[in-house]
Specification:
- The chain is mainly alpha-helical.
- Helix content is about 50%, strand content about 0%.
- It has 17 helices and two strands.
- α1 packs antiparallel against α2.
- It is globular.
- The N and C termini lie far apart (about 40 Å).
Length: about 375
């Protein structure tokens, strides 16, 4: 599929901070209410499936769908489980032994709640970002995506208690699920890819695509070399990261059918990193790009289909706002989050990819539930 614009649209990255539709433009406090509801729950369910609620409600509020948030949560709540019981307190002295132990999810969350209560959240993020980056693919990349949504809200809105707590929950989840990708040793003959799109096209699929993501990631052997230099210039690193997000979003339009849910993460994971860069020292931008590329390439290797399918944008395609409204009515959490990323990119191909995700993923809301009265609005601490 060919992009007809080649640039970021008016809904894209350049206009994100302070733009209409950001989380800061939420006079009803819906996002904060929703986050308080969600913080009674753990970050996972059924052993390892992720709680997508915090990410989805942030995207809904940001794109003008705040009136639907509590109704969406009422529908989603049956998937949530209580936060696990704490085991052993994580401290500055013992965190190394707790890193990557999913049994310590509550311990890690409490650790980051203490840290962000005692220091500026940016300082906590800066300290832990390079420690957590090697495990970016952990939890099928959901922890870093959750952190990216939380940081975006803090950067353009009020740094209040529910939003700082959301960052603590995201960092805690990432630390508990932290698991580096296998060590890869590219052969000396490997030719560098000229662009992010070419690099994603050159990612070799894993041999066995029948298992879960952990089984698939264990089979990784090599990624294409892209870009050739990661850390020389922070501005170049940010530009290459934006290029990667655009390429992965575009690629979903023609390859998303291979795994409509899982392949959204090839775009949403690097976009979470891109959203976080403004909160980080510039010297961390290069390694952030390297980790984002590894995450996107890993998901691509694990789930890409053998062959693409054509996807042509309609000349009468709906507007970005209309597309997100469709995603909100569709109700699937991955579709909402991918459409949010597609609107960040903002060009014709990205919007077509968002429509493709709405088409490929089964709707989570029935027509009746889309119009039913909103139920509870007050924060609840009961099991959902």
């Amino acid at each position: 599929m060919t992009d007809t614009t080649g640039t970021t649209g008016t809904t894209g990255r350049a206009g994100l901070e302070g733009a209409p539709g950001t989380a800061s433009a939420d006079p009803t406090g819906t996002l904060d209410e929703a986050l308080e509801r969600l913080h009674a729950a753990g970050p996972e369910r059924n052993g390892w499936l992720s709680n997508h609620g915090p990410m989805a409600v942030e995207a809904l509020v940001r794109h003008g769908q705040a009136p639907a948030v509590h109704r969406w949560l009422d529908h989603y709540s049956h998937k949530l489980e209580d936060m696990p019981a704490p085991a052993v307190r994580v401290t500055a002295e013992n965190w190394h032994e707790a890193l990557g132990d999913p049994r310590r999810i509550a311990d890690w969350t409490m650790y980051f709640e203490r840290e962000t209560a005692g220091r500026p959240w940016q300082d906590v993020l800066t300290e832990w970002w390079p420690r957590l980056l090697p495990g970016i693919a952990a939890g099928a990349t959901h922890p870093v995506i959750r952190v990216g949504h939380a940081v975006r809200t803090l950067l353009d809105g009020e740094a209040n208690a529910p939003r700082i707590a959301e960052l603590a929950h995201g960092l805690g989840y990432w630390a508990a699920r932290h698991q580096p990708l296998p060590a890869l040793n590219p052969p000396a003959s490997l030719v560098p890819a000229p662009s992010a799109a070419a690099a994603l096209d050159a990612v070799p699929p894993v041999a066995d695509q029948t298992g879960g993501i952990r089984d698939r990631l264990a089979q990784l052997t090599v990624f294409p070399l892209w870009p050739q230099q990661f850390a020389d210039d922070p501005d170049v690193a940010r530009a290459r990261l934006a290029e990667l997000v655009r390429a992965a979003t575009h690629r979903y339009a023609t390859h998303g059918h291979g795994a409509p849910i899982m392949l959204v993460h090839a775009a949403t994971a690097p976009n979470a990193v891109l959203r976080t860069l403004p909160a980080l020292p510039r010297e961390l931008w290069g390694q952030s790009l390297a980790a984002a590329w590894a995450a996107s390439a890993a998901v691509t290797a694990a789930y890409s289909p053998a062959d693409p399918v054509p996807c042509t944008a309609s000349p009468s395609a709906p507007s970005a706002d209309e597309i997100f409204a469709r995603a909100a009515a569709h109700g699937d959490d991955h579709t909402i989050k991918f459409t949010d990323t597609a609107l960040d990119v903002g060009d014709t191909t990205a919007l077509a990819a968002a429509l493709r995700s709405i088409e490929l993923n089964p709707p989570a809301l029935s027509p009746l539930s889309r119009t039913a009265p909103i139920a509870s609005r007050a924060p609840s601490r009961t099991r959902r």
